[in-house]
Amino acid sequence: MIQLLEKKITQELLQSLCLEYFKTFVKFVVDIHRSKIAIGGELHADAESMLLESGSDQKDLWGGNFYPWHALGERIEYTSFINIRPKDGNKSMEILSPDIRKKVLNIVEQFVLIPSETLENEPE
Fold first, then answer.
1. Domain contains 73
2. Is the pLDDT reported for residue 111 higher than 90?
3. What is the pLDDT of residues 72-91, one digit of tens each?
4. Residues 9, 111: contact at Cβ < 8 Å?
5. CB under 8 A, 24+ apart: contacts of 97-104
6. Is residue 88 one of the residues assigned to a domain?
7. Whole domain around residue 34: which residue ranges?
8. What is the SS3 string spanning the chain?
9. CA 45 to CA 54: how far, in whole Å?
């Protein structure tokens, strides 16, 4: 299940999305121009498609993984196959631009977990 968030996600839904496929993390794709996020599902490409269908431009979409039970600073992994875009200056699965990383971080913190929050009930 992929959610296109319009407001901050509840901790219950975040935990549910994590447990659905990967247990300890959830995949996300953000639109850094429109400040939107699609979260959940098995593939970044599915969340990417959802954002494209809602009006996003490919050049603005960046994917990663969110680990809600990790320590602050280790929660976001800026890695996805959708990030490989040599024509946009990113030749890696990892987001290389510090500016884009900061935009991604800001959107994730706005819609998922702010730095002062923690998610309860870590899966075993």
1. yes
2. yes
3. 889 999 999 999 999 989 99
4. yes
5. 100/32, 100/62, 103/30, 103/32, 104/30, 104/32, 104/62, 104/64, 104/76, 104/78
6. yes
7. 2-111
8. CEEEECCCCCHHHHHHHHHHHCCCCEEEEEECCCCEEEEECCCHHHHHHHHHHCCCCHHHEEEEEECCCCCCCCCEECECHHHCEHHHCECCCECCCHHHHHHHHHHHHHHCCCCCCCCCCCCC
9. 14
54, 45 contact by CB (below 8 A) = no
Whole-prediction pTM: 0.94
* Amino acid occupying residue 6: E
Is 121 contained in some domain?
A: no
Q: Give CA–CA dist 9/5, Å, rounded.
A: 7
